[in-house]
Amino acid sequence: MAKILLFSSHILWETHYETELEIIQRHIDQGDEVIQLYCASSLPLCDANPEKAFSRCMQCMAKKSNGLALLSKNIPSISYELLSNADKKAIQQFKWKANTIEELKEIQYQNFDVGYAVASSLISLLSNPNPILSEHQEKINLMMHSAIEMYHSILNQLQKHKVDVLYVFNGRLMHAKAAFKAALHLGVKVMIHERGSTFKQFELYENHLPHDLAKMAIKIKKFWEGNADEQDKINKAAYFFENRRKGNILSWKSFTDQQEKGSLPEGFDPNKKNIVIFNSSEFEFAAVGPEWNNPLYKNQNEGILNIVADMLPHSDYHFYLRLHPNLASADPVNYAQIVQFKSPNLSIIMPDALLDSYHLLDNAYKVIGFGSTMGIEATYWNKVSIMAGHSMYETLEVVYRPQTHNELISLLLDDSLVPKDKLGTYVFGYYYAASGIPFRYYEPSSYKEGYYTGIKLGSDFSHNYKATAWVNRYWKFRKYPILEKAIRKQIIQLLQKA
């Protein structure tokens, strides 16, 4: 019998808590002992509730309780908090200083790269890879100290319960990464859970992040080698690429399903050597780790401006920058510098434009990618693809990888270049089409919702009449500070007992 500890850090994020319930039930089936750690509204803020709205805390705790009630066996569900006086003193004495996001990333606390963890959560919250830290000092301070509190608490919980395996979601955000690093420090096996190749599966990563370039390269190649049926692998890889082109949702939302098929930018001249640049939503990987730092440029915007400027003398070339559709809901600061840049050899396609990305790809002379999947998709669709960043497919020999800016320019000007061999595209496509563990208890109906054991998991209080009554009192009396504090405490106690 194994001792399992599961830290539920993102209960309100769609499908991830349902995945945790799946994992818990599987361990119960195996006869393992499982303990759940969660936040009983004690964190000063979290990724799912950065403003610490009490209504969100109530929804989180209610969803937690509703989910546990669906398990075949009761398990202990306790607060993550477990700090000694020495821990509290160390946390109180910890001081940090950073004026830029790069300085923030460099901050270390013992064996925990807390600066990267906090930067990752901050960047994701703001959808901005380079926020002005002076505008967010109070929030960053709360993030920093709560992440360190989490690190100490998980260290203590792992030692107290003599845990064999810790489960945590994603692993890059502040509190999840604190738990991940605590387990690694103690030599406890940590399993990170994330979405699988489709929304009908989940995936586990042992002792490494899903974003670890070196470990993922090994995992992807090993998955390919594990199936001796070559045709089956090629068929599934083709399914991956063709479904992306069609806009069919596999594991996450589609960014192309609403695009106008067959459309090209106004004034598109097929007689020119049209280079299509597919940028990425840089904020998603801006604070994963130093291995994701762009090897050629300070950032992709700088890279694009330098490339376009240096190619201006070559009048037979024209650049089309397809801003990643995911940027449509992000802070415009991500692309403001690019949009303001005017050059006769550059046309910019805005993130929300319905122009057909794949028809544009088909009509491209060459493609430049900054890490998005379009880089490898270009090779699959028989285009010369040049990468100016990092990606999960960078070791598969599917894109040209210049080591300098001048080398990239030379590749653009080289008319003898041919598309890379497609074998690596099949390796990549097969992994993202077929990897993962099929759900047994959770029945997803899409990438963001589904049913656990036939029940849609809500965050209401319908099962807890006492809590419901106190919640009604809370909304009635919340404008009175003393009453609000007392009622809030009563609600938390009732939800903890649920």
Textual characterization of the structure:
- This protein is of the alpha/beta class.
- It folds into two domains: 3-212 and 437-460, Rossmann fold (3-Layer(aba) Sandwich), CATH 3.40.50; 232-434, Glycogen Phosphorylase B (Rossmann fold), CATH 3.40.50.
- Helix content is 41%, strand content 13%.
- It contains 17 helices and 14 strands.
- The chain has helices spanning 16-29, 54-68, 85-93, 101-105, 114-126, 137-161, 174-186, 213-225, 230-246, 300-310, 336-340, 357-362, 374-380, 405-413, 423-434, 465-477, 481-497; strands at 3-7, 33-38, 77-79, 165-169, 189-195, 201-206, 273-278, 317-322, 346-349, 366-369, 384-387, 437-438, 442-446, 449-452.
Quaternary structure classification: single chain
So how many helices?
17
SSE class: alpha/beta
Low-confidence stretches: none
Arrangement of strands in the largest sheet: 3-2-1-4-5-6-12
Can you tell me the overall shape? Answer: globular
Rounded radius of gyration (Å): 24 Å
Main sheet attributes: strand count, strand direction, barrel closure: 7 strands, mixed
The CATH architecture of the largest domain: 3-Layer(aba) Sandwich
In short:
The protein is of the alpha/beta class. Helices cover 41% and strands 13% of the residues. α2 packs parallel to α17, α3 packs antiparallel against α6 and α9 packs across α15.
